[in-house]
Amino acid sequence: MTGKVTVIKHPLLKHKLGHLRDKHTNSNDFREITKEISKILAYEAMREWDQMETVSIETPIAKTTTERIKNPPVVVSVLRAGNGMLDAVLSMIPISSAGFIGIYRDKFINNTVEYYFKMPENIKGKEILLCDPLLATADTIIAAVDRLKQYEVGKIKVLCMIASKSGLERLHYFHPDVEVLTLNVEEEMNESGYLVPGLGDAGDRLFQTK
To answer: Which helix (H) or strand (E) holds 98?
Structure first.
């Protein structure tokens, strides 16, 4: 597999992912667990952040200096399932701005269709944290990355719960520079494009839709 893929392994994450997979997990619990996992993905995505600045502050005891994040990443949600991750990631990086990309795969034209694109001003050179719970065929993520690169953004990191091996290979065929952070790589997809064993349609389970 080409490209950088970071599989975050931790007993708590395995426990939480197991509940996401369970078809009996209700929508409210699914949302809450998605938020919990998203915070950890954001934490890991920022682990090597080196754009920091030193500022002077005063504690209740004495004057000192501290470090703060400079030039924070833009958090981008791939609608609609990415919205289940967005607030949690922003809660970890509250100084970040947010963008939204609405893309779906149209089975009749066998291609992706963009219906919404809204970004903050001046995203040129900005690092992007691209949020989508599932990376299956990778068609949507590839289309989203294509659009972001038209704006000459900086490094792009994809945050997802689970990803397919074939989807990762396809993403990195077109965009080998994109880093993916996930909890697990699934070996299989079924004929409908769902990950196996997967967790079903994340958007439907988040928002109780069909």
So the answer is: strand 98-106
Measured CA to CA, the distance from residue 185 to residue 195 in angstroms comes to 10
Instruction: Name every residue whose Cβ is closer than 8 Å to that of residue 81 and which is 6 or more positions away in sequence.
Output: 132, 133, 134, 202, 203, 206
**Using CA atoms, how far apart are residues 29 and 105, in angstroms rounded to an integer?**
28
Q: Which residues pair with 196 in a beta bridge?
A: 188
Average pLDDT, the chain: 94
Asked if residue 205 lies in contact with residue 41, where contact means CB atoms within 8 angstroms, the answer is no
Report DSSP letters for 122-170, one per residue. Answer: --TT--EEEE-SEESS-HHHHHHHHHHHHTT---EEEE-SEEEHHHHHH
Strand partners, 158: 130, 180
Tokens of 68: 């703060």
Query: How does DSSP classify residue 80?
Result: T
- Residue 141 has a CB neighbour count (10 Å cut-off) of 30
Structural domain harbouring 175 = 5-207
Q: Taking 80 as the threshold, does the pLDDT of residue 2 lie above it? A: no
Q: What is the CATH number of the domain that holds 98?
A: 3.40.50.2020
* pLDDT in the model for residue 1: 46
Number of domains in the chain: 1
Question: Residue for token digits 């389970």?
Answer: 205
